[in-house]
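Reading group handout, session on sequence-to-structure problems. Before we discuss, look at one worked example. The prompt was deliberately terse, the way you'd type it at a terminal:

> structure Trigger factor

The input record follows.
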Amino acid sequence: MQITETSAEGLRRDFKVVITAQDIESRVQTRLTEVGKTVKIPGFRPGKVPMPILKQRYGQSVMGEVLEAAVNDGAQKAVSDNNLRPALQPKIEVLKFDPGQDLEFAVQVELLPEIEPADLSAVEIEKPVAAVADDTVTEALGRLSKGRRTTEKVEEDRAAVTGDILLIDFDGSVDGEKRPGMKGDDYELELGSGSFIPGFEDQLVGTKAGSDVSVNVSFPAEYHAAELAGKAAVFEVKVKEIRVGKDAELNDDLAKTFGFDDLEALKAAIKERTEGEYGQTSRLRAKRALLDKLAELHSFEVPAGMVEIEFEQIWKRLQEELARGGADAEDEGKSEDDLKAEYRDIAVRRVRLGLLLSEIGRRNNITVSREELQKAMFDEVRRYPGQEQQVFEFFQKNPQAVESLRAPIYEDKVVDFILGTVKVNEVTVSVEELMRDPDEDEVAAA
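And the output record:
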């Protein structure tokens, strides 16, 4: 096997590999001999089939196997002999091959760049943090209380007002024709909730228990049932009762319905959970600040193939968003060429940061354990209540799916390591500032 380097430019290396006809023939003979030990051909004992017959029957398929193996061996040897670190699988192009002739093919290898991380101890970032206010806990308790709300019948003879809950029977029609889904009995409708067709609830304000009301409305133009969209409708409504909602009392009994010993334990749990949410957001903001700083400090060439793969993924997601009408306001009015240039820059940044984090992790012996992978798998399984068994079986049958969980775990571990190395200055901010999308701040400042 003869390997010749034909080009060395940036992160790309090109080689020409020649495997002699004699080598190919020897490989074919060896493989046919192996095949001859197991095949059954009438008139011959296993292992005694003449080579000419083996060649006639299996020569073409064996040649295919041999050529594939020879090409892979040549590419691997080009990499190993030159101590290369490929970024992706080498690209191979067969240049020349005819039966009885030498095999010639080209191998193109993209290399991982040599990366020298900056002095992390000199890096300084800000981490926004926010305290959990008492009002936040009170508001959360209020939502829990409202979620356990009951209704009470209004005994006095009065007209319904916004906020009341009416117990109604209703029966609707379009063009005098009854339609499925437009009838209901003993339905509790809160006036002002906006849960019915626009205008429906407004026409019931001022009614009394026992009233019969004809409600005239039109279905919205974008109504989910196309046959009703934009149609005028009439609903005959019987107001059976006026009720008022009564939130559950904030006491130990309410706490026990949520599995806590008393109200104080429920408050503590709410505060702890909220602190966890704030902490997670703080970490994400710190991670973003860290990645921005690392991007500023490092500028090295990245493999074009990796950039192309990343760009294609980004561009595909963007096209899907555009198809759903979810384009970012800042992208509106831009040409496709401008958008591609911007998103390619994003792809370059992501690849560069990914390689940098990988190198920092490698130098500091950061790895992902089997236990961490299993935990991530079970966390993923729990995300699909009612389908746990199917998801678990999917992971069991697809080891590569489990391996796909490794990258985000590894990145988080490396980021946590770096955050423990750099200087992190905590800055107290309001909850609104903490939760605000950083991209909105950048747009406002532009």
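Points for discussion. First: The CA atoms of residues 331 and 338 lie 9 Å apart. Second: DSSP finds 13 helices and eleven strands in the chain.
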